[in-house]
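RECORD TYPE: protein structure
NAME: Reverse transcriptase domain-containing protein
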Amino acid sequence: MFISWVKLLYSAPRASVHTNNMQSSYFPLFRGTRQGCPLSPLLFSLAIEPLSLALKTLSHNQA
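PREDICTED:
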């Protein structure tokens, strides 16, 4: 259920830029999380943990 919700939240994300009281056209986002999204820290933690474990394993195997 959680994965489905995240996929829905991040499917076809778009953004626009606001400058000088003007808004640009929307453009697609291809990477990253949305700025200010409360899920960003959790998604970062979920992604960094396997990377951290892989690096530790690699480090121990080379020692």
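COMMENT: The helical segments are 2-10, 40-62.
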